[in-house]
Amino acid sequence: MKILKIAIIALLLMGFSNLKSNEKSDELKNKILKNIRCLICQGQSVYDSESEFSSSIKLIVDKKINDGLEEKEIYFYLREKYGDWIIYDPKLNKNTYILWFLPLLFFLVGGAIIYKKIQKKNEK
User: Fold this and answer.
1) How far apart are CA 33 and CA 30, in angstroms?
2) Helix %, strand %, coil % for the chain, to 5?
3) Upper half-sphere CA count for residue 25 (Cβ side, 13 Å)
4) Which one of 6, 33, 36, 86 is most buried, counting C-beta atoms within 10 A?
5) DSSP letter at 88?
């Protein structure tokens, strides 16, 4: 009888820990899917999209998580297969310099134009 109680408690604990790990993997999966761009849809993440491409990426991410890969490893795999464009937050490298520095350049040029206009207005 005591062994039966211990077995039941052990099964309940295993089920509880399995439930916790499923919740963690679901959170990780959703986090990754929200940071991956659907290459078919305009401006949608894979998480929000219902395209065939998104469905296949969801399956790939799920399989990679079940295989034990970490978030960075999954992003690396997707970058290798689809390019840097698939990730919403691309790494800074020679191919993405323009993505990172173009907004700064626009800000500086815009500021210089506004500064010149204010200077001309004050001279009159």
Assistant:
1) 5
2) 75, 5, 25
3) 16
4) 36
5) S
Give tens-digit pLDDT for 55-104. 888 899 999 988 888 888 998 999 899 887 888 876 677 777 777 788 89
Domain that holds residue 108: 92-124
Q: Is the pTM of this model over 0.70?
A: no
Residue 20 has pLDDT above 80, yes or no: no
Total domains in the chain come to 2
CB atoms within 10 A of CB 69: 15
Written as one letter, the residue type at 121 is K
> Cα(99)–Cα(34) distance, rounded to whole angstroms?
20
Q: Indicate if 56 and 104 belong to the same structural domain.
A: no
Q: Considering only CA atoms, which of 89, 85, 93, 83 is closest in space to residue 71?
A: 89
